[in-house]
Design brief:
The complex is a heterodimer of chains A (565) and B (491).
Chain A lengths: L5 H14 L2 H20 L6 E6 L2 E7 L2 H20 L6 H19 L3 H20 L6 H28 L14 H14 L6 H6 L5 H9 L1 H12 L5 H19 L3 H22 L2 H32 L15 H14 L6 H15 L3 H27 L13 H19 L2 H4 L13 H23 L15 H45 L11 H23 L1
Antiparallel strand pairs in A: 1-2
Chain B lengths: L6 H19 L2 H29 L2 E4 L10 E4 L1 H17 L3 H8 L5 H20 L3 H20 L5 H31 L4 H11 L3 H18 L7 H8 L2 H27 L1 H7 L3 H20 L4 H22 L2 H32 L10 H4 L1 H15 L5 H15 L3 H27 L12 H19 L2 H14 L4
Antiparallel strand pairs in B: 1-2
Helix pairs in contact in B: 1-2, 1-5, 2-3, 2-5, 3-5, 3-11, 3-15, 5-6, 5-11, 6-7, 7-8, 7-9, 7-10, 8-11, 9-11, 10-11, 10-14, 11-12, 11-14, 11-15, 13-14, 13-19, 14-15, 14-19, 15-17, 15-18, 15-20, 15-21, 17-19, 17-20, 18-19, 18-20
The chains are: A mainly alpha (565), B mainly alpha (491).
Chain lengths: 565, 491
């Protein structure tokens, strides 16, 4: 049996779904990742596929263990997401979901930067459709904001590639040093999609704006592709350690005061990405394994948490922590699944977060970054705080909001259950995951030291939350707007730009006049010669035309003969 | 020898013998069916030849078994194999549409001869492309030219006669120039076989007759290819000829001229001699770019869209001339690819004109008002082929322009690359004018009234090819690459 490169299955699925009636679409949606998985199973890892377009040789498909791991992850995520979305029959979302997954698969199998760029842009466009598909009054503007950021990332990547090529360098996907403008441009492009500090605004902005399914998909694909690319292109880049450490820290504070629970998860997303970025920055085999396995687990548990919040949103239409509470009475299954996700993200032993996060922590210590280790430790406590306790507590317990929604639809529960069992299975039998990692591991997460350290951390963290709550020192859940870095480019920059534009506008008046005069001049010359009665357009007189030809001939003849002398 | 070995001869013989037989058939419907069959057989032969050439290298075929130097030789390499596919393919695609196409647009008393003359023109063009003997080339040039004058004169508009007369005078000047050039070269080398002549020319290349011969042939082919300012025959001929004839000639006639130029320069005189010693680039680049500017500018103000398309062809042929003049590998590829690609898009655009004329009787700006609603498929074809004409990515036009611009850059002439880009911008203007009128003006009353499928289908097929070959460039660029390598690439 011969397999095709994985993204083709999803693109074909998207094309068929686009043309199918609603009833058939559900079946096709499930079938696509399943067929994709069968295809992936039979795919020879050594396959490479190249095409040549206009003299540029592109490697569309080339995979190693890293690609294969991400490919399985994306198939799993796509399957969970489509099951989760079975309750709705929105063609736009369904097509976009499959195409989005296809772009992610194409990106992880890209053999060179140009192909990566193409799928990079594909990710931006398909995921933008998922924000637009919410069809809320603010959706078009949110989509536009999201697209501006994503396309900027794509343009930076393209500029970097162009500079590399102009310098005669290889555009294959080899690890590169952070020296020179081209490398920095590519680094920034990846940084935007990874949510580097100050470039993270779009994650906070867009995730809460997408549809329930859209957020689940976005949390699975865009940032993970960026992590994949970062692990490929910049492993062991020292700057990443500090960037990653900052990413684990600053979202914690925002997450504690943020009211919109999906936005809390978005902050938590940046925090988790920070752990992965640190791992990539350290760059040892253990650290990279840790980063990659954490990416794998994050898709499952963050997806699970987004799904539970999506279910709440779907049933209640609300997402503010202050408006929710007490939902455990009527949504017990969702509550239980949310707690599994919360335990996983908080890295409880026997849950998936534990087996990957501890890997990064150990790698940090082994390389002697004591301060970073402390930062990560603090961040871990913070994660438990905002994602492990806050999310389930304010949504399902806390004060009774009086809401009595129905349990989540069955399809949603199935999807959440799949993700939750994934979290548990990996947490209990980590070897299943370790076996697929890019480097061979001899790492055992369940040593007494690891387990005890983590349990103490979790215990004291929980104690702190309880005490703060008891003494009413914990910031109350209040609806409000928190000012983040996006204040700079959503408030400050536009005002500065408007001011600059006004200044420039005054200077531009004479320039404009000159430009207009030039255009008018060119047009009138063009019209005089080429217009209806112009000399170039006139009906030919046979004699004149022949004379012109003869003159040209005479000129050429003289030229030739003179040249020959 | 089996039938397969005789394919080169059949390529020309089938339409050449088919033409008089077609006249004998008499009944118009039967003549049409016969002509379609001949066109498709010819097309099949050309495809078989192209495949064979790509697999096994150039074919040398000698007529009647005479040695190549004494008799007439047919030599097929990737370059002319591609031209054969273009010419016969265009005939095969357009010929079926002539059954209804000629009802409106061909004068009544000439209708029974239309298919005969069309097959003659086809045979002539194929002969020019296939032959390896320069006198034979001249003979076929006369056959195709005379048939072309006749076809133009068949237009229903009375001005067609005058256009045909002008075309005849100019065409004859061109053919005579070519003949004089051939004569001079023959005088100095004593041979008419291209390969043989190429081998003997270096010995006498410094003599005045050979220098003059190159000048004669350069200008002769420039007239046939309608390179500015020798283009004067084209606007009127394409405007007043039956639209299907314009479609066929717009796609092939000037391309045959460009092919002759390439063949003479690369296979007879030699690129080193022509470009390095005689500096024909100094003639081709300025004239080509002047044509690109002049043709585009004039096209903007044209009222009759067929005339607009004809001037656009002046510009496009200018690109081909400039590409040849750049005398590097990319330029050669650009010229060959554009010969093929421009054939596709100009053919499609003139077929759209045929559709519109069939419904509305004329193809000026007024008749395009609101046409987007009235003839949506027809206008769709116009938009696709128009985008290709502008050179939008994922169309064939982009592929040609890509190579053209990179060839200008390779030659170190970046200001000329800017000129090329600027003329593409003018192309946006003249295509947009039509789109604007067709989609954004109030349509005159009348229901949806699409052109008959038989006229529309060829246009749709060509538009589809514009996109397919714009995305998958293996056929055109691949063949052009091989051809460029065989011709010696750059001097």
């Amino acid at each position: 049996m011969t397999s095709v490169t994985p993204f083709l299955v999803f693109f074909a699925g998207a094309a068929v779904v686009a043309l199918s009636p609603a009833r058939l679409r559900s079946v096709l949606l499930i079938a696509t990742p399943v067929v994709g998985a069968v295809n992936l199973w039979f795919l020879d890892p050594a396959t490479t596929l190249g095409v040549s377009f206009l003299g540029v040789d592109l490697v569309i498909h080339s995979g190693d263990r890293l690609s294969v791991l991400f490919a399985w992850l994306f198939h799993l995520a796509a399957l969970i997401a489509v099951i989760y979305s079975l309750h709705m029959s929105d063609r736009l979302q369904q097509v976009a979901a499959l195409a989005y997954a296809g772009c992610a698969l194409g990106a992880v199998y890209s053999g060179d930067l140009v192909t990566l760029f193409l799928f990079w842009e594909g990710l931006a466009l398909t995921s933008a459709a998922l924000i637009l598909a919410r069809r809320a009054p603010g959706s078009p503007r949110a989509t536009l904001r999201y697209l501006v950021v994503q396309v900027t990332s794509g343009l930076l990547l393209l500029a970097g590639i162009a500079m590399l090529r102009a310098g005669g360098e290889d555009i294959g996907l080899a690890a590169m040093e952070l020296d020179g403008t081209a490398a920095w441009l590519i680094f920034l492009a990846l940084g935007i999609k990874c949510g580097f500090p100050l470039l993270h605004g779009w994650i906070i902005d867009a995730y809460p704006e997408a549809t329930e399914t859209g957020t689940v998909l976005m949390s699975a694909f865009t940032t993970k592709v960026a992590i994949y690319a970062l692990a490929r292109l910049f492993p062991g880049t020292g700057e990443l350690i500090w960037i990653g450490a900052a990413m684990t820290m600053f979202p914690i504070f925002y997450a504690v005061i943020e009211n919109d629970l999906r936005r809390v998860l978005a902050y938590s997303m940046i925090n988790q990405l920070g752990f992965m970025v640190v791992g990539i920055g350290i760059g040892t085999e253990l650290a990279l394994n840790g980063a990659v396995s954490h990416a794998f687990n994050d898709v499952l548990f963050k997806g699970l948490l987004f799904m539970t919040m999506g279910a709440v949103l779907y049933r209640t239409g609300r997402m503010g922590g202050s408006e929710l509470g007490g939902l455990y009475r009527t949504m017990p299954a969702t509550t239980g699944l949310c707690i599994v996700g919360a335990a996983s993200i908080s890295a409880f032993p026997l849950f998936s977060g534990f087996v990957s996060k501890s890997m990064i922590m150990v790698a940090v210590i082994e390389e002697g970054h004591g301060w970073v280790w402390l930062v990560l430790l603090f961040a871990s406590a913070g994660v438990f705080h905002h994602a492990g306790i806050k999310i389930p507590f304010f949504a399902f317990f806390a004060h009774d909001s009086g809401l009595r929604p129905k349990e989540a639809p069955r399809a949603m529960l199935v999807a959440m259950a799949v993700a939750a069992s994934g979290c548990l299975v990996i947490g209990m039998w980590p070897d299943l995951l370790y076996r697929m990692l890019p480097f061979d591991v001899s790492y055992d997460p369940y040593t007494w030291t690891h387990v005890l350290t983590q349990c103490q951390l979790l215990f004291f963290s929980a104690l702190a939350f309880t005490l703060l709550k008891l003494y009413r020192l914990y910031p109350p859940e209040l609806p409000g707007v928190n000012i983040d870095a996006d204040w700079c480019y959503r408030w400050l920059l536009p005002r500065l730009a408007r001011h600059a534009a006004r200044l420039a506008g005054d200077a531009a008046v004479p320039l404009r006049a000159v430009a207009l005069a030039l255009i008018a001049g060119t047009t009138s010359v063009g019209r005089r010669w080429g217009g209806p009665s112009g000399i170039l357009a006139r009906d030919p007189v046979t004699g004149t035309a022949s004379l012109v030809v003869l003159l040209v001939f005479a000129l050429v003849l003289v030229l030739h003969l003179v040249r020959g002398l | 020898m089996g039938l397969l070995q005789q394919l080169p001869a059949l390529q020309v013989a089938v339409p050449l013998i088919g033409a008089p037989l077609c006249a004998l058939v008499g009944r118009p419907r039967l003549a049409w069916m016969f002509a379609v069959a001949v066109a498709w057989i010819t097309f099949a032969i050309s495809i078989a030849l192209l495949e064979h050439v790509l697999d096994a290298g150039p074919i040398h075929y000698t007529m009647g078994g005479w040695p190549e130097i004494l008799g007439i030789a047919y030599v097929i390499d990737p370059l002319n194999a591609l031209v054969l596919v273009l010419v016969s393919g265009m005939a095969a695609i357009i010929m079926p549409a002539t059954r209804i196409g000629i009802d409106v647009e061909v004068v009544h008393r000439a209708r029974h001869l239309f298919h005969t003359v069309a097959l003659l023109a086809l045979a002539g063009m194929l002969g020019i492309a296939i032959t390896g003997d320069i006198f034979n080339l001249y003979v076929f040039l006369e056959i195709s030219s005379l048939a072309s004058y006749a076809l133009v004169a068949m237009g229903i508009d009375r001005r067609a006669t005058r256009a045909a007369f002008h075309y005849l005078v100019q065409g004859t000047i061109g053919a005579t120039f070519i003949l004089v050039g051939i004569g001079l070269a023959y005088m100095m080398t004593g041979t008419l076989n291209m390969a043989d002549m190429a081998a003997r020319l270096p010995g006498v290349s410094h003599t005045a007759p050979i220098q003059a011969a190159l000048a004669f042939i350069l200008i002769g082919t420039a007239i046939k290819a309608a390179i500015f300012p020798a283009h004067s025959w084209m606007p009127n001929a394409y405007t007043y000829a039956p639209s299907l004839v314009s479609a066929f000639f717009g796609a092939t006639a000037t391309k045959i001229g460009a092919y002759m130029l390439l063949r003479f320069v690369y296979s007879v005189f030699g690129a080193d001699y022509a470009f390095d010693e005689m500096k024909i680039g100094w003639v081709l680049i300025p004239l080509g770019l002047a044509g690109a500017v002049a043709g585009s500018v004039v096209a903007v103000w044209q009222h009759d869209l067929r005339r607009m398309l004809a001037y656009s062809s002046v510009a496009q042929v200018g690109y081909i001339a400039a590409a040849i003049g750049f005398a590097n590998r990319d330029g050669l590829i650009a010229a060959i690819v554009h010969v093929f690609n421009h054939g596709l898009m100009k053919g499609a655009l003139f077929l759209v004109m045929a559709c519109v004329i069939h419904r509305l009787g004329k193809a000026d700006m007024e008749s395009f008002r609101g046409l987007g609603r009235r003839m949506p498929l027809t206008m769709g074809c116009f938009v696709v082929a128009g985008l290709s004409m502008i050179g939008v990515p994922a169309t064939v036009g982009f592929v040609s322009k890509w190579y053209l611009v990179s060839s200008a850059l390779d030659a170190g002439l970046w200001p000329l690359a800017l000129v090329i880009v600027a003329t593409s911008l003018i192309a946006i203007i003249y295509i947009w004018r039509v789109v604007d009128v067709a989609y954004f003006t109030k349509p005159p009353p009348g229901a949806r009234d699409e052109a008959p499928a038989m006229l529309l289908m060829p246009a749709v097929v060509l538009c589809a090819l514009c996109i397919v070959l714009g995305v998958s460039t293996d056929l055109t660029v691949g063949v052009a690459n091989t051809a460029a390598r065989l011709l010696g690439g750059a001097p």
